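Input record (Table S2, row 573):
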Amino acid sequence: MYQVIARKYRPQSFAGVVNQEHVKNTLENAIAQNRIAHGYIFSGQRGTGKTTIARILARCLNCIQGPTATPCGECASCKEITAGGTVDVIEIDAASNRGINEMRELRENVRYQPARDRYKIFIIDEAHQITNEAFNALLKTIEEPPPWAVFVLCTTEAHKIPATIASRCQHFSFRSVDFEDLIQRMAWICQQEGIEADPEALAILAAAGEGSVRDSLSALDQAIACCGDKLNAAEVRALPGAFSLESLEKVTQALGNGDSRSMLEVVDELERNGQNLQHFSRELSRYFRNLLVTRVAGADTRMVAASAAQREKLAAIAGSFSEEDLTRYLQLSLDIFKDLQYSLQPRFHLEIGLVRLVQAGRLLPIEQALAGLGPAVRTSPSALPAQAPPAAPRMAPPPATGREVAPPRAPGPSPFELDRVKKAGTRPPEPQSSGANALAPQAEAPPMMAGDPRERLHAWLHEKGNTHLADAVENSSFTITGGDLNIVSPKSYALYFQDRGFEDAVREVFGRPLRMKLITGEAAAGPAPISLAASSKTEAEDEVTVRALANPEVRHFREVFGGEIRKVRNLKE
Ligand SMILES: Nc1ncnc2c1ncn2[C@@H]1O[C@H](COP(=O)(O)OP(=O)(O)OP(=O)(O)O)[C@@H](O)[C@H]1O
Ligand SMILES: [Mg+2]
Ligand SMILES: [Zn+2]
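Output record (magnesium ion complex):
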């Protein structure tokens, strides 16, 4: 009869168990010193050896040559435990025996001496499923057990074991198994089975288990069923459920190129190959996690489970993204994973998610954005010339999507202004430069800005003969931040700005619709752009505010970053 590899190769002694050294050593010592506890909790990830070690412990205790840390494997007791239980080693699946009646029965059973062996050992799997009353029925027994009774509660969810029980047991938490050790174990099993597997193939299968030995061995089973006794990486990757790193790498490539189209192609290919999209999204998260960890901790960190060849690739790819980028991608990929869990339309969600990854794009490091602002706020000597757009950190030519914070150019005079100036026969105003000009003493500033929104609106409305609105504009002040037109207007004029005519004027004058944000208050007289409700300010404060807001660099900064200025403080005071 065919037996699955995971069961066939269940270790029969501590020596065969991969990792879990802390558990093995403690138990071995306890056995050697004859200090056996009556209650144990084995908790940890699925498939990491909890049931296995519970059975080994049973053998150690009941072997005819025992108690010993190295059971003989020959005696009736050893053999029967391997085969799945004896009268004195009782395995209970709490998933199906979780109620109070079962626990009462168990309590009865405990009272009788072992039929043949030294100890009566109760291995309770999925112990967290036991109901609270049922646990209560057990409490007394676990607290004062007869000398022959040993309980081993196995669970993946230790926190669900009531504290009353937990405090009466020795607790071992099992950790997920190290990648290298797992590969060694799998290589050994392949050798036993006469399977030739190349290391890369084993690495793929080992990684598929995410630290669970059982899951990795199941993947190995599946690979053998599909590919026969020669396993190579390419074939293993093609298994349903296994993902080629290729499609994952395609995702990072598309990210690097800002290429949404390739992202959609990745999804299409997965669909056509009948791949499970949820599984893919989980792999994707793991992939970004590995990239991030590689980026932070270096290519040969223990924290990443990968073969040497994979590590090299990971490091190369991780190097082309910043830590911040990778963090963002990991977060987004986790969101995709979450979305896909409950989605009836996994394909759509995956598509949205991947395109969103592209759109999340790459943010410009703040240093670079600042470097583009001008000499006064440069942060490093290597910063780019003030006018040159800072190079975005791409690994490929920037795509046309233009999602990154576009490095702003110094604003030139508006076309309307040029036109008006031409008519008036004066020189067009100089583009606002952040060069030497920017450092000019502010005493000379601010001249009426060429592109002052108030002035422009007023001129346009005047020309159209809309004198009421022109009046309102004249008595208010305006600043534009991003898509917002901030208006500070006295109450008596406020209503005018809700007029359709004003909306039209804005669209005409600025060439785009702007969202209006109206603050009622006394607008400071004069041409200086003001975004604060100034009425409550003292004269001195006002002067500082006006000067600060008129500063070309401050203005430039606000054009780049938008935002709102709440308070201006003079640091010298
Ligand atoms: N640490 C390990 N060393 C070697 N093999 C292991 C180890 N852990 C698990 N295995 C393999 O995986 C199989 C399942 O292990 P086991 O039943 O002990 O897992 P478990 O931790 O009890 O999982 P679950 O929480 O799902 O019950 C074993 O038969 C064995 O082949
Ligand atoms: Mg188990
Ligand atoms: Zn024995």
